[in-house]
Specification:
The complex is a heterodimer of chains A (109) and B (110). Chain A is an all-beta fold. Chain A has no helices and eleven strands. Helices cover 0% and strands 56% of the residues of chain A. In chain B, strand 4 and strand 5 form a beta hairpin. Classes of the chains: A mainly beta (109), B mainly beta (110).
Chain lengths: 109, 110
Amino acid sequence: GQQVMQIPQYQHVQEGEDFTTYCNSSTTLSNIQWYKQRPGGHPVFLIQLVKSGEVKKQKRLTFQFGEAKKNSSLHITATQTTDVGTYFCAESNTGKLIFGQGTTLQVKP
Amino acid sequence: NAGVTQTPKFRILKIGQSMTLQCTQDMNHNYMYWYRQDPGMGLKLIYYSVGAGITDKGEVPNGYNVSRSTTEDFPLRLELAAPSQTSVYFCASSAQETQYFGPGTRLLVL
């Protein structure tokens, strides 16, 4: 079945360092969504990418969709303690979301 | 708008007991979903619904049942609770692509 693989599973960074999480699929993705889940919280939608090679920015967050639409990345520049949480990618397909395993980010102040 | 609400927030069940997890949304969304999230893991789709009266199985439906009699409500039923069902359960709704999640129900089966 469909699978979206996400790496790394965990990442510890010093505040101010950059962070990147990667999402990969063996099949072409129709689109990719990114969600953030704070510790003890629920997933919150961040962004959706649809077009091949698409790049979108939200302040310090940069989202990319690969040219072949088989991978995506989320890059955070100069992390802050408020960035702590788990970041999930998910493919939307016929109204359902298939989630990656998530990358948990810890930021040391 | 309250968005997506879930009750209860936390519940402890004994093996073999049954319970219903409630989910309500006030955004008039057609699509609703139930996920479970085990510690350190991603979300697994249990059941989903594309509209009132219509439900369908997700990745991990065994041990669960759902109904969708109204647009607003999408309860999840556990008939015979098992320790493997210890998890955090999230309900979500969507109009199109973006899903809005409720705060979750933490369930412990002992």
